[in-house]
Recover the amino acids of this structure.
């Protein structure tokens, strides 16, 4: 992706350039505008996204980010053997690849996404996982419906009110439930979104929380991503009623030679690209 020099990392789920007729800027964007923009962006871009990244993601693989950290190895939700019989909610599921991996371990996953087109890709791959089209800020489930919840770059980077999402996830989890989510590492927002050497020099303030927005000629947002510092993310987790038990910053593995937007072996060996928050509901 190539944006203006001060543009932040676009999220791993996006990983592509702004639409040709859109303008990249930094401005405020509220909850309704952010949600509307995300739904539209993913409905328009799901085909290209799955075509470009589907081979890396697989049909039934659980990958936490562009580094390729696999849940089968990381066990952030717990040992694979412990997942059997667990009710699991995947938020921002895309084509439900992670949910299929969970189902293969004997779990009972539900894949939720805001984008109708992304869920159509989930159906194209297979109809073995329940699919729900809904907003992460208004989860359509009863209290205490799930044992675990997860999100690999889904929903959290795109919402204006992350604490509300945390509280909704807590509400639908049973006591002792675990919530694990990954986002672009906040430090990346200080660097240009470039995979080469030009992406290694600080060009913007890490402390500037102004959302990154792509807007059309009428000024309507077509893509919104919200920046939070690392401390902000921790405070969001706590305000949402969770206890943070781990913060994982995956290192770039030697086997991974791909570039994905601003993620690359060059940058990945020097600065973190992904932050994974492992949280528990008391």
């Amino acid at each position: 992706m190539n944006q203006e020099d001060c543009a932040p990392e676009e999220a791993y789920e996006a990983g592509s350039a702004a639409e040709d007729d859109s303008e990249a800027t930094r401005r405020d964007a509220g909850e309704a505008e952010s949600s509307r923009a995300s739904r539209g962006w993913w409905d328009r871009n799901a085909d290209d996204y799955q075509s470009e990244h589907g081979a890396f993601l697989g049909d039934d693989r659980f990958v936490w980010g562009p580094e390729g950290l696999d849940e089968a190895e990381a066990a952030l939700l717990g040992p694979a053997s412990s997942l059997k019989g667990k009710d699991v909610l995947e938020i921002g599921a895309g084509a439900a690849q992670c949910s299929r991996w969970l189902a293969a371990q004997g779990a009972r996953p539900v894949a939720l996404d805001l984008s109708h087109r992304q869920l159509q890709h989930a159906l194209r791959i297979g109809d073995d996982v329940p699919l729900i089209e809904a907003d992460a800020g208004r989860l359509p489930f009863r209290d205490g419906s799930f044992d675990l919840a997860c999100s690999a770059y889904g929903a959290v980077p795109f919402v204006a009110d992350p604490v509300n999402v945390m509280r909704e996830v807590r509400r639908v989890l049973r006591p002792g439930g675990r919530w694990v989510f990954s986002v672009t590492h906040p430090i990346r927002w200080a660097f240009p979104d470039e995979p080469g050497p030009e992406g290694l020099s600080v060009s913007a303030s890490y402390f500037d929380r102004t959302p990154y927005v792509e807007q059309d000629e009428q000024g309507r947002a077509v893509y919104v991503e919200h920046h939070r510092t690392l401390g902000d993310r921790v405070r969001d987790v706590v305000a949402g009623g969770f206890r943070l038990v781990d913060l994982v910053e995956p290192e770039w593995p030697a086997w991974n030679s791909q570039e994905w937007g601003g993620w690359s072996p060059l940058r990945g060996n020097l600065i973190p690209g992904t932050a994974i928050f492992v949280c528990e509901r008391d």
